[in-house]
Design brief:
Blueprint: E1 6-17, E2 20-33, E3 38-42, E4 51-52, E5 56-57, E6 62-65, E7 79-85, E8 89-105, E9 108-124, E10 126-127, E11 148-149, E12 152-153, E13 175-194, E14 197-216, H1 223-227, E15 231-236, E16 240-250, E17 259-279, E18 295-315, E19 318-338, E20 351-364, E21 369-380, H2 384-388, E22 391-392, E23 398-400, E24 408-421, E25 424-445, E26 452-473, E27 481-496, E28 514-522
Parallel strand pairs: 23-26
Antiparallel strand pairs: 1-2, 2-8, 3-7, 4-5, 6-7, 7-10, 8-9, 9-13, 11-12, 13-14, 14-15, 14-16, 15-17, 16-17, 17-18, 18-19, 19-20, 20-21, 21-24, 22-23, 24-25, 25-26, 26-27, 27-28
């Protein structure tokens, strides 16, 4: 129970000189954030009657039901005992940004953007446990020998060593400090280029100049820290992306007002290299000479996309749209080194995937009514972190990526009905979709360990059915109130999961069955 505070400063300056415009802004943020990750043990193994030799009775643990499961120990809804947290997060963020523009002509504008961010984050774990003299008890001190706790023999099934009363993760209260510096550059061209042809072209460049996190295995107040202040250093190098997108559209294709056409090309290039080193001394960046690298993982992704669509208003009140997208995705230069495998034998293999995504829609708009049926294929290719984000933390857990992930393969259907009235509209959407190889992170116990690790994996197939309703009413009944209400009801069910068949029939996590939003404006 404490006060957490935040502070923000923002300033900007803009000016226009003829056809040139310039805008500069500075944003400074300092913030304290509440703990987000509890340190837990199985309920009943700690409490006021638990004792350690020479330490006395322990208290301070909070009995509660597990709200999340897996990542917080045990299954959701089962009893757990929280004995600490990852601590208050202190953040300092400075963002410098410049935007410039030039009006080539009244209908064509080019823009430039540059941004530099300096970001610092630090936090120190906190233990809730104290003995009968008020002394804080840390993870390393829970290793003293005793046979029973609360009359129970502490065994392997509880996540402890037999006859050894020890927190499974004695390094849960460590300290971490992160410094990140990034540079973003952008350029855009938007407007009419010739005749009825318009373009929207953008290029963005993002580079991680420096991103380093130092983490200690033990809390600085833990007695073990004085003699064993080991830790890890996590750094990013050669990481960032370049994106290019160029779209061209013509609302009177071949001079026909009933035809509209759009086409374009998109290129995405991203690189990632994450290195985790073991530190013999947390207070410096000295790397342990005998184990210089804990893990190193990264690679390069390139995606080319070519798309086009044609819309035809073929008779009064009716229109049809046909489109397609061709994509080519490439993985190359994959690297995955571990302390045990430094020979490159774990490096991901180069591979390529091609995809074709057609879409079709048919619309009918008589008077104030609108009806439309749409169907389309869509692919979502894995991003770099899902493929290469392998790393170890100081507490022994791992984040495991999967360089063999397939792209998410979705088929989407939507039926829309809408009625427009003088002061608003009512809209109804019915949708159905099947997504194969849905990418999701789940927790697993690595063989021979009691530490949960995060694994990126593919869900075989997820089927979603839903209804979405929107009501937008301005100046309700002639009043000064506007009202907008949106409600979504959906059922997202796992219908295939080869890696874990027990989950078939379950709801897909993080997909709410019911959600509603209301916005009211008073003029």
């Amino acid at each position: 129970d404490t006060n957490l505070q935040g502070f923000k400063t923002f300033g900007s300056y803009g000016e226009k000189f003829g056809d040139f415009s310039t805008y500069f802004s500075y944003n400074h943020l300092e913030n304290e954030g509440q703990p987000m990750t509890p340190t837990v043990v199985t309920s009943g193994l700690l409490g006021s009657s638990a004792k350690l030799p020479s330490k006395g009775a322990l208290s301070g643990g909070i009995d509660e039901l597990n709200p999340k499961g897996n990542g917080q120990g045990g299954n959701a809804g089962t009893p757990m005992l929280q004995i600490g947290s990852d601590g208050i997060t202190h953040t300092i963020d400075d963002l410098y940004k410049w935007k410039g523009g030039y009006d080539i002509n009244p209908e064509l504008t080019t823009t430039f953007t540059a941004a530099y961010e300096h970001f610092e984050v630090s936090k120190t774990g906190k233990s809730f446990l104290t003995n009968d003299t008020g002394q804080t008890i840390w993870g390393s001190q829970l290793g003293e020998t005793t046979k029973t706790v609360n009359g129970k023999l502490v065994g392997q099934n509880d996540g402890y060593s037999a006859n050894n009363y020890k927190l499974a993760n004695s390094t849960a209260f460590g300290k971490s400090d992160q410094l990140r510096e990034t540079l973003t550059l952008g350029w855009g061209l938007n407007g009419r280029i010739a005749g009825n042809w318009f373009t929207n072209t953008n290029v963005s460049y993002f580079d991680i100049l420096n991103d380093t996190t130092l983490a200690s295995s033990y809390n600085p107040n833990d007695p073990a820290f004085k003699t064993n202040n080991v830790g890890t250093k996590t750094s990013w190098a050669d990481s960032g992306w370049v994106n290019f997108t160029s779209k061209f559209n013509n609302e009177e294709f071949f001079g026909n007002k009933d035809l509209s056409f759009a086409t374009g090309y998109e290129y995405q290039h991203s690189t990632m290299l994450q290195t985790v080193n073991n530190l013999s001394n947390y207070s410096s960046t000295t790397i342990n000479a005998t184990k210089p690298i804990s893990t190193q993982s990264g690679g390069t992704l390139d995606t080319h996309g070519l798309f086009g669509q044609l819309s035809w208003r073929f008779i009064k009140d009716w229109d049809a749209t046909l489109g397609t997208r061709l994509e080519r995705w490439n993985l190359s230069d994959g690297t995955y080194l571990t302390t045990a495998k430094m020979d490159g034998s774990l490096n991901p293999q180069d591979r390529q995937v091609s995809a074709w995504s057609p879409k079709f829609s048919l619309g009918y708009q008589p008077g104030r009514w609108k009806f439309r049926y749409s169907v389309g294929k869509a692919y979502r290719f894995p991003v770099a972190d899902e493929l290469f984000g392998n790393s170890n933390s100081v507490n022994g857990s791992q984040t495991l990526a999967d360089a063999t992930l397939k792209p998410e393969d979705g088929t989407h259907h939507n039926i829309l009905g809408e009625y427009d009235f003088d002061d608003g509209y009512i809209r109804l959407n019915l949708f159905h979709e099947n997504i194969r190889n849905a990418i999701y992170s789940q927790y697993i116990y690595l063989p021979g360990t009691t530490t949960l690790s995060s694994l990126i994996s593919s869900i075989g197939e997820v089927e979603t059915n839903g209804i979405d309703t929107t009501i937008n009413f301005d100046r309700v009944m002639g009043s000064d109130f506007d009202v907008k209400v949106n409600t979504t009801i959906l059922d997202a069910t796992i219908i295939a999961n080869p890696l874990n068949p027990k989950l078939v029939g379950n709801q897909m996590p993080l997909m709410p069955n019911y959600r509603t939003n209301m916005l009211t404006t008073y003029h």
